[in-house]
Design brief:
Blueprint lengths: L3 E9 L6 E9 L7 E4 L15 H4 L1
Antiparallel strand pairs: 1-2, 2-3
Amino acid sequence: MSFVIRLVNYTQHPSWKFMYFSEIYIDNFKTLRKIKIHLNSELNVFTGTNNAGKTTIL
């Protein structure tokens, strides 16, 4: 089984010492099939039922 996890549009925040990702694309990894997640630079909250793939994203 092959899979793709691509971190897209990473940016260095002007006042922080690290970079953040604004988008994650996951294709065929564990329970996730072709998913694109747009992230906020401040806070992201993942919710869902058991075995929905929340921990897989992390």
